[in-house]
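[audit] Reproducing an earlier prediction to check determinism. Same input, same settings, fresh worker. If the tokens differ from the archived copy the diff job will pick it up downstream; this log only records the rerun itself.
[audit] input (272 residues):
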Amino acid sequence: MLQAFLVALTVFVCVGGAELAGFTMLNRPIVIGPLVGLFLGDLHTGVIVGAALEAVFMGVVNIGGASAAEPGIATAVGTAFAIMLGKGTEVALTLALPIGILGLQIKTVLYIFLVGMFAKKFDQLASEGKQGQIVALHFGLWAVNWLLYSLVAFLGILFGSEAVSALLEMIPDVVMNGLTVCGGLLPAVGMAMLMKMLWDSKICIFYFLGFVLTAYLNLPLVALAVLGTIIAVAIGMNDYQFNRMASMQTAAPCRGESGAFALDQEEEEFFK
């Protein structure tokens, strides 16, 4: 009971909080996984599962009707089952996608049949200028909507752990090994989806640089992150200087010869 409540609380705070507060990233697997692991007493597994599922769902973007899965509830329930059943990341990766797809459908149904029913009420209150009632209704609907959504995670953990455990025991080892291999491929699929959206000929050189540093120099991920930050800051400062000089060149005719002399002097100092 306590474990189910803690998982539901994580879903309510992280997924519901992200919908309320904006682009906070609280609903990402890299946040929810460690939090569930902390609540259930296995932070190590929570961090590993959260990172693995972040790689899976990193390229999944739900925009309007183009929706695939809801990573928040998938991570919370998948991490909880991985910890409670002691099966590790292979269980979380295997269960995450179907749970995420189901969670998205439930989320959509709640939006349509709960929140959508009050659209005309919002219009009426707005036309009457009742701002206080609009705020109260907004936060009330938010609370009810995400309480019902969190209830799905609560019931899934409360009644589903034994059923999932029994189902996993019935699966033959050869099938389970195949699911484990497929689960290991899912992060690569997630990264490929992300790269497909972000790939650009101007920045692809940095991808190959990171690959070489990892594959041949065996640099850890922390070192790569630091190097990437340094490169990003250096490029940003360089672009800022060039944009600044370009704006000064545009304004130079208005300033006359003194402005041109100052621009030349600044360029010499910069390239020194």
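[audit] rerun output stored. Observation attached for the diff report: The first helix runs from residue 2 to 21.
[audit] end
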